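Structure (tokenized):
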């Protein structure tokens, strides 16, 4: 059964698209999730793969924040000072719980980056980021399955 699941290229594509979408690259993965669900893929597996890929992409961004320092963030990743400031402002306003919004476009990835720069506890980071990303994919799946219905 696992062999059959791994042979479905949609899941592998969804994992990598979700991973990359959770880095500082300007990509989205919801469209692929919607297409797969509309095409009959298992909802639980599809949401799980998207969530895991997206979470691991956020972890990669967090690690860049920890080890990269400001030079790497500004020179290599080219995160603009306004993007950095927006992420810092969210942290200042909402604290670590702003990581629940790491799924949001534009500010979500910098939130994970700042989380690493501020060395937020990894367990708390993981819990908040995974919960936010899971909720996003569940909502997208429910909307899709209701519309396809």
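Design, position by position:
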């Amino acid at each position: 059964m696992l062999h059959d699941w791994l042979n479905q290229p949609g899941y592998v594509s969804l994992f990598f698209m979700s991973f990359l979408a959770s880095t500082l690259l300007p990509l989205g993965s919801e469209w692929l999730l919607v297409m797969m669900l509309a095409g009959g893929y298992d909802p639980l597996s599809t949401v799980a793969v998207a969530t895991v890929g997206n979470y691991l992409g956020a972890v990669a961004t967090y690690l860049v924040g920890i080890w990269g320092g400001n030079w790497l963030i500004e020179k290599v990743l080219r995160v603009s000072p306004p993007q950095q400031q927006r992420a810092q402002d969210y942290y200042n306003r909402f604290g670590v719980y702003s990581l629940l919004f790491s799924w949001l476009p534009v500010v979500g990835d910098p939130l994970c980056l700042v989380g690493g720069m501020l060395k937020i506890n990894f367990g708390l980071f993981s819990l908040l980021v995974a919960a936010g990303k899971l909720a996003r994919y569940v909502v997208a799946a429910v909307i899709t399955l209701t519309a396809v219905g």
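Reviewer-requested clarification: Residues 121 and 133 are 18 Å apart (CA to CA). The helical segments are 2-6, 9-21, 30-38, 43-76, 81-94, 108-117, 122-148.
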